């Protein structure tokens, strides 16, 4: 936590008082489902999906209502520290008000430098593409080197946000417990991520938040890390796979950490992940009963 004395020493008493008031306002406002809650859940989804594509990549620490002059969302990796300010309004500009956005961005960059944060940057997030384009054209020169403008849509409900954003749906499909998840499944994935963020107000890494979401809403999200082969070889017993290999027409897999099967025009997915006690018991039962046909196998499924 940034100390008041440090802010006063670096910026003076007036700015230190403003910083303290801004912190108290952020703490009081960090309740309920808001634009910021949607955005931080989106950034967790984005980061988790990136780690599926590149498991060796950096796992960013993500926090909402961080200490700072730009404080809505902070995302940090070893090489960069990104601060986001969100303005869910039809009209936004850089210079109006007692404490203009441009001033806050300049102060945040200076603060990050005092704190020796790597690669600090600032970003303004607004709900319409037209507003984002206008603000992008008018970024003040004093902050242009470290500032970007992002468009993130606003929707009254999380369900509507997901259904109206192809980009978001594509991310969530990577994170769902099933392949090619339908549109009615995806809002549940986003809801799980958002609640994980609300449960961890101090922030956490993307994978920690993902694990929190999976704990809060079992069977909604895939297992991580994303090495598909590891689930099969770590959790599917040899004796279990030998039985399945002898069943004509049966195909199966566990790419997302959930056992699924298909054959003869039907398919299914086991309701608990492959690391669960329930799936271990299912494997034991399959081995014990040793089904010889697809029909016999489906009789073993709970």
Question: What this model shows, in words?
Answer:
The protein has 302 residues and is of the alpha+beta class. It starts with a helix and ends with a helix. Strand 3 (80-86), helix 4 (101-114) and strand 4 (120-126) form a beta-alpha-beta unit. The chain has 13 helices and nine strands. The strands form two sheets. A six-stranded mixed β-sheet has the order 5-4-3-2-1-6, sandwiched between helices.
Q: Which spans have pLDDT < 50 for at least 5 consecutive residues?
A: 27-32
Strand order of the largest sheet: 5-4-3-2-1-6
Distance between the termini: 50 Å
Tell how many strands the DSSP assignment holds.
9
Q: Helicity, in percent? A: 40-55%
Q: Give the count of helical stretches.
A: 13
Draw up the topology in text.
Blueprint: H1 4-11, H2 13-29, H3 35-53, E1 61-64, E2 73-77, E3 80-86, H4 101-114, E4 120-126, H5 129-137, E5 147-151, H6 158-163, H7 166-175, H8 186-199, E6 204-205, H9 206-216, H10 228-235, H11 238-245, E7 251-253, E8 260-263, E9 266-269, H12 277-289, H13 294-300
Parallel strand pairs: 3-4, 4-5
Antiparallel strand pairs: 1-2, 1-6, 2-3, 7-8, 8-9
């Amino acid at each position: 936590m940034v100390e008041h004395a440090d802010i006063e020493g670096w910026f003076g008493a007036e700015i230190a008082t403003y910083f303290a008031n801004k912190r108290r306002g952020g703490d009081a406002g960090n309740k309920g489902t808001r634009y910021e809650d949607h955005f931080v859940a989106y950034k967790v989804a984005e980061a988790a999906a990136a780690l599926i594509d590149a498991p060796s990549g950096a796992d960013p620490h993500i926090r909402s209502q961080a200490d700072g002059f730009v404080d809505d969302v902070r995302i940090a990796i070893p090489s960069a520290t990104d601060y986001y300010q969100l303005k869910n309004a039809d009209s936004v500009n850089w210079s109006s008000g007692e404490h203009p956005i441009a001033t806050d961005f300049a102060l945040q960059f200076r603060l990050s430098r005092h704190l020796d944060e790597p690669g600090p940057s600032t970003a303004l997030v607004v709900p319409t593409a037209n507003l984002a384009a206008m603000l992008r054209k008018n970024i003040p020169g004093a902050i242009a080197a470290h500032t970007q403008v992002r468009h993130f849509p606003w929707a009254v409900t999380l369900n509507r946000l997901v259904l109206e954003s192809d980009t978001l749906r594509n991310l969530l499909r990577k994170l769902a417990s099933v392949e090619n998840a339908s549109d009615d499944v995806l809002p549940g994935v986003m809801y799980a991520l958002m609640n994980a963020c609300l449960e961890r107000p101090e922030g956490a890494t993307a994978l920690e938040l993902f694990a929190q979401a999976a704990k809060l809403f079992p069977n909604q999200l895939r297992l991580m890390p994303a090495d598909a082969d590891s689930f099969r070889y770590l959790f599917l017993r040899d004796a279990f796979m030998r039985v399945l290999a002898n069943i004509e027409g049966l195909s199966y897999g566990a790419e997302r950490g959930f056992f699924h099967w298909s054959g003869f025009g039907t398919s299914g997915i086991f309701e608990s992940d492959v690391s669960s006690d329930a799936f271990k018991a299912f494997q034991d039962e399959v081995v014990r009963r040793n089904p010889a046909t697809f029909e016999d196998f489906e009789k073993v499924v709970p």
